[in-house]
Amino acid sequence: MAHAAPVHYAPGARTTPPPASTPASASRWAGLALLMGVVYGLWACAIRRDGGPITTGNVMFGVVTGLVFAALMFALHRVAPALPRELRALSWTAFAGISFGFLYSLAGASVLRSTVMALVVAAGVFAVTFYRYYTTE
Predict the structure, then answer these.
(1) SS3 of the chain: helix, strand, coil, percent, to 5
(2) What is the tens place of the pLDDT at every residue in 96-130?
(3) Separation between Cα atoms, residue 67 and residue 59, nearest integer Å
(4) Could you write out the DSSP letters of every residue in 53-72?
(5) Calpha distance 92→67 (Å, rounded)
(6) d(CA 123, CA 93)
(7) 13 to each of 8, 16, 19, 63, how far by Cα in Å?
């Protein structure tokens, strides 16, 4: 019976990671997007409820909000690898800023304050994502 010969790698050699479009990666990201959508929907539902009774409209608002969030997150993950690093960082920045601004506006803040807070969060996300994409590509 023949056996495969062991493969020896040179010290310090790097192996390339699997492509981002593998089925395992897609299902992992779908699961993560779904989990984040549930958390986002519950958070939005809790903010909108504001300590009052749980109503059908409030639950439906949380479900729809969570589904939209999860669908956009998964779609962005599928599209983003094809973009250059600057646009990829900007796309995640816009997603994070809009998501945070929406939740912040649900708390009763003014449009101006919600916009400023969303821009602050977006600036932080842009700095982190651009740095990550710039140093790893």
Answers:
(1) 75, 0, 25
(2) 999 999 999 999 899 999 999 999 999 999 999 99
(3) 12
(4) ---HHHHHHHHHHHHHHHHH
(5) 18
(6) 7
(7) 10, 10, 19, 47
Distances (CA, A) of 43 to 39, 73, 120: 6, 16, 20
User: Do residues 99 and 69 lie in contact, with contact meaning Cβ atoms separated by under 8 Å?
Assistant: yes
- E strand segments, the chain: none
Q: Which residues of 16-50 are buried (b: 16+ CB within 10 A; e: fewer)?
A: eeeeeeeeeeeeebeeebbebbbebbebbbebbee
- Quick: pLDDT tens for 42-67: 999 999 988 888 899 999 999 999 99
**Segment 66-82, tens digit of pLDDT:** 999 999 999 999 998 89
Do residues 128 and 88 make contact, with C-beta atoms less than 8 angstroms apart?
no
Contact 85, 134 (CB under 8 A): yes
